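FORM 12-B: Structure-to-Sequence Request
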């Protein structure tokens, strides 16, 4: 597990005075600003000040960004918070960052693939699996019935996929 967790991303400029469109990956979107200072992937630190709520996200300002060009240059940049500032989760909840890269085995021990991404399109989380035996990605529902065991210490997930998924 990394000592940093991705809590959001810059979606682009919002206006011409350096304001940004921010996508928050937090359960409560506005909580992203409470984890300041945030950092970029390269480790540079910045501070986020939220200025409002907009369609599909939040608007805000980052230190050092004062015009549209600088804001546009940050489009796609991910924002990270130190893990120790994030809330402790209950035993049956996980940060997406902790699931990515874990090996997924079926209940018989056969490797199904590795978690490449975690998606949520409104009906619940889906684990995107990729692996040498798969022609493409497979989306596995991340429910207690389908994924009964997540062992972060062992770096392993045990799944009981629906018939015909693999």
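FORM 12-B RESPONSE
SEQUENCE OUT:
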């Amino acid at each position: 597990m990394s000592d940093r967790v991705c809590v959001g991303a810059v979606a682009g400029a919002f206006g011409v005075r350096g304001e940004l469109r921010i996508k928050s990956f937090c359960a409560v979107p506005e909580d992203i600003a409470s984890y300041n200072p945030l950092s970029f992937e390269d480790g540079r630190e910045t501070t986020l000040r939220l200025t409002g709520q907009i369609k599909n996200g939040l608007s805000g300002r980052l230190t050092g960004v004062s015009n549209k060009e600088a804001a546009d240059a940050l489009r796609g940049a991910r924002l990270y918070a130190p893990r120790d500032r994030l809330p402790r989760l209950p035993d049956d909840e996980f940060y997406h960052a902790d699931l990515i890269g874990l090996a997924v085995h079926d209940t018989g021990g056969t490797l199904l693939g590795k978690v490449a991404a975690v998606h949520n399109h409104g009906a619940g989380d889906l684990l995107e699996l990729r692996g040498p035996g798969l022609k493409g990605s497979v989306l596995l529902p991340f429910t207690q019935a389908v994924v009964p065991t997540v062992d972060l210490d062992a770096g392993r997930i045990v799944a009981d996929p629906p018939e015909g998924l693999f």
